[in-house]
Design goal:
Blueprint lengths: L2 H7 L2 H17 L2 E2 H8 L3 H13 L3 E6 L2 E6 L1 H12 L6
Helix pairs in contact: 1-4
């Protein structure tokens, strides 16, 4: 398991971004950066910084459409993380 994943998950803002992506995916299939900036009350450069870390860790997918960026969760990578962490579960 790549340590980048856990570094990416070890930040409150990035966890909030993941939560926002998950909630937006339920409604419109993907989250838009412009809406995320408003709802998280962060600047565009701050969002870009955190998105790059999440993307480099392959936790999210970034799709550009014109001047807008949309985000989705990388389901395969998340399943890999969940599976990895599940190995530490104490089965008494």
């Amino acid at each position: 398991m790549d340590v980048k994943i856990f570094k990416a998950l070890a930040d409150e803002t990035r966890l909030e971004i993941l939560e926002q992506i998950i909630s937006d995916e339920c409604c419109v299939d993907k989250a838009c950066a412009c809406e995320m900036i408003k709802s998280l009350d962060i600047t565009q450069p701050t969002l870009s910084h955190h998105v790059k870390i999440l993307s480099d860790a392959k936790l999210i997918n970034v799709q550009k459409e014109g001047k807008y960026s949309y985000f989705t969760i990388n389901d395969e990578k998340m399943e890999e993380v969940i599976s990895f962490l599940g190995r530490f579960k104490n089965e008494n």
